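Hey team,

Sharing the NUDIX hydrolase run so nobody has to redo it. Sequence (173 residues) first:
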Amino acid sequence: MRRPVGARRPRRAARTLVLSPEGEVFLFRSDNSEVGVHWNAPGGGIEPGESPIEGALRELHEETGWTDLRPGPLVCTWEHDFTWHGTPVRQHEHIFLTHGPRREPGDVAEVHRVDGILGWRWWTPDELAAPDADPTWPPNLSTLLAGLRTAAPGPIDPVHLGHVPHTAPTAGN
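Structure output:
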């Protein structure tokens, strides 16, 4: 069955938020013609037959070279529209949490080139929440992380953001 003109192809994806012992989060810098420069956690498309957590684990290893980390609890899900390698998609993402040491990625430059990853850095909570910070995927990432830091110990209750439309590229979360 053909999709109507202008329809977006569904795409499933998974990401892993990596938090350092100091509370910093590791993010990649990307650029997209529809949404502009933004920061997002390691992750990407889920392959056929993979569960979201299996996809998150594979992507975390491929994009960082870190094989000692495993995605933990689900933090949130959301959907957003963008164009991936020339194809308009509506991406449904599962975002997981893990903790790990503050370090640089391994030898993953070729993966970054193919995926359009422009750079990376560790963000403190204050830097991520600053009004002049570059946008993040999802747009309220600083708020989600603040909720995790203030939550009581125990299981995480995942947040379901639904479809989050993108606005014109601007700074801020």
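Residues 169-173 have pLDDT under 50 and may be disordered.

Ping me if you want the raw files.
A.
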